Amino acid sequence: MGAPVIYELRKPKELIPNKQYPCLFVMHGIGSNEQNMLPLVQGLEDHFYIFSIRGHLQQAQGFAYFSIQAFGKPHRDVFDEGIAKLSSFIDFVCEQYPIDVSQLYLLGFSQGAIVSMTLGLMRGNSIKGIIALNGYIPQFVKEEYDKQSLERLALFISHGQFDQVLPYEWGKENAELFRNLHASVTFNTYAEGHTVSKQSVIDFQTWLLNDLNR
């Protein structure tokens, strides 16, 4: 069976036979593609198999994981389809590559953060860590999605204080929701808009490498 999505793979240059590696799934923002986020994870390929995933929907000059009917409100059926494809891809990767299934991480910006946090809620402790940059959790996900145990899950959630696309308050709500579900949450804010600062990259890479030893 082929992969359910298009992706770009980065991995250690010298692979050790029979070794299973931590895995990082990377998801971009709306109108972007699988190449866009790779500079943010440069150097991490020494430690991870990195799969940068293209959204399955054409969007302007790029791609998206779901479409939007109103501000902060994805089309439910399209969103569900995107989440199903991403979840299937995680299973595909774990079957096809030498992956340590106890060391699965998700990283996303904007739409990528939205789907990363949603996958974390639905897959629970099968995910070890999530880095969610400037995203939100749709209301129907909060109210209607089945949520799994999250005691093992750790998150690095960040949001720009001056985000002109997705309000800063939504970032705070993300952190509160996961804390209430007993996940371990690091919440960082930056004097930025809807973007990823250099300091944020340093901070989430440091957090990620430290979490590997947890």
TrEMBL record:
Keywords on record: Hydrolase
One GO MF term: hydrolase activity
Domain Phospholipase/carboxylesterase/thioesterase as annotated: residue spans: 22-208
Protein family per UniProt: Belongs to the AB hydrolase superfamily. AB hydrolase 2 family.
Pfam families: Abhydrolase_2 (PF02230)
Protein name: Esterase
UniProt-listed InterPro entries: AB_hydrolase_fold, LYPA1-2/EST-like, PLipase/COase/thioEstase
PANTHER family xrefs: LYSOPHOSPHOLIPASE-LIKE PROTEIN 1, LYSOPHOSPHOLIPASE-RELATED
Organism, scientific name: Heyndrickxia ginsengihumi
